[in-house]
């Protein structure tokens, strides 16, 4: 079972992928652990380097491993349903796999005067109009995150008529397809007492502890195009950060 | 002022460093913005590529910019006193520059039976002994973070007789010097009501919202060597994450 079947129609790289995936899921390879080197994998399974690389790429795309230049491949530390703050992708875009259900309800969307906090963050004049998108995201039926996004008008315009406004399409993916790709984002986390509206939507009492995440996303030109405030129930959704040493750390 | 003085004794790379630093501090180059390319800097300032690279390296070491392979150099988004969760360095090790004061009080240190949460995280038997280090960190005189670290006995042993136990030396640096260098860490953040002891130390009322950060650090071999629980006042210390797009994100 742990060898490559040379007579199977299944490509070698997929067979190796299954073997490694099974070792990861069984915790034989535990989170954070370094995988055997490419050379070791080539030797152990009698495969070419290009096949081994194809396997690693595919495991990385599935989020099962993380490849660090010059250091190797490591078993990812995230679990299904975690919200990983250090990646630019959105929570419900790629971090939640098929084993958990996510429902999004849109409460508000449209052009409105921006609150000062949002216009400042986006570099717009105080009182400027912007596109506001207010959503509740439920994880496995439980209210998990109550978010308000604030965007410059021209960014919000690309959402018109899309299923983002019905809660069935990813905001990040839609913005990216329109040329607004996140290049970097700064996110701040704070513990606050839940204000009335988020408390009501999240099923909390007013002033219950809730996680507030404020995030500003910038494009490749460094210009901010999306600011959000999310109130998250950290007892419903695990919010995590994976730190990796850089050279010289 | 914005040109290289060819007759100065100050090395060219330092002169260029000052010029760029001043543009960053004046926000002419704003957080997240991409710096001019190496070639552009060479041309504009009539400098060699190796000089420009030396400047960029030095700015990166100071934390003013961040270099992303194949994408260029970007103005860092952090501020003095931020706790950046996606880097492996500790809060008080490198993120706080000379403009803010940090005081650490050690309340407890020594070998004790580990709580189940810590022995599980560290992969030790339930009830195993470990080294426990309990500290209060104040930022500019204000209680900011109340932390308890849990380490396997052989890791804690390297702290014996060091100033870590008097609160005047960095735990991370001391562990690193002893061969326990963080290769990866997983950190989870949650908003909780402050328990009695952290509340008292942090100057909060019991059940006031407080940020709980749980972190597990692993070495290059993937083995965990430090688990901590930190209660942080996010109204005193800004806790942030900087997300950068990877290729393919």
3D architecture notes:
- The structure is a homodimer of 249-residue chains.
- By secondary structure, chain A is an alpha+beta fold.
- In chain A, a hairpin with a 3-residue loop joins strand 1 and strand 2 (72-75).
- In chain A, 26% of the residues lie in helices and 31% in strands.
- The first copy, chain A, has two domains: 12-75, Winged helix-like DNA-binding domain superfamily/Winged helix DNA-binding domain (Arc Repressor Mutant, subunit A), CATH 1.10.10; 83-240, Chorismate lyase.
- In chain A, the strands form three sheets. In chain A, strands 4-5-6-9-8-7 form a six-stranded antiparallel beta sheet. In chain A, strands 1-2 form a two-stranded antiparallel ribbon.
- The model of chain A has no long low-confidence stretch (mean pLDDT 87).
- Chain A has helices spanning 12-25, 38-45, 49-61, 91-95, 116-122, 153-156, 171-177, 196-202, and strands at 65-68, 72-75, 83-84, 102-113, 129-139, 142-151, 184-193, 209-218, 224-232, 239-244.
- Strand 7 (184-193) of chain A pairs antiparallel with strand 10 of chain B, so a sheet runs across the interface.
Topology, please?
Two copies of one chain form a homodimer.
Chain A: H1 12-25, H2 38-45, H3 49-61, E1 65-68, E2 72-75, E3 83-84, H4 91-95, E4 102-113, H5 116-122, E5 129-139, E6 142-151, H6 153-156, H7 171-177, E7 184-193, H8 196-202, E8 209-218, E9 224-232, E10 239-244
Parallel strand pairs in A: 3-10
Antiparallel strand pairs in A: 1-2, 4-5, 5-6, 6-9, 7-8, 8-9
